[in-house]
Here is the input.
Amino acid sequence: MARARSALEGWTAEQIAAGRRWADSWKSTGPELERIRREELRRIDPFKTIALLCGPADYHVAPRAPKLTSGLVEQQRLFGKLRRP
Here is the structure.
């Protein structure tokens, strides 16, 4: 069975050393970046974030305004229609 070729076979010793340094720097930097990300997430104002994502919205007019009923009466009416032949 033939040996699988390594993607690093064409790399020089200097390139391999640089790749190892790069990997080591990310290994040590990753946890710090994760800590910063979590800290930023904790400080986010959810209402401001939703406004940024969805744009300005008036929640007093349709379609975003709350409905007058929960829809339960309409659901029961539809179920009643299904029951009848």
About this structure: Residues 26 and 33 are 10 Å apart (CA to CA). The first helix runs from residue 13 to 43. The chain has one domain: 13-83. Residues 13-83 form one domain.
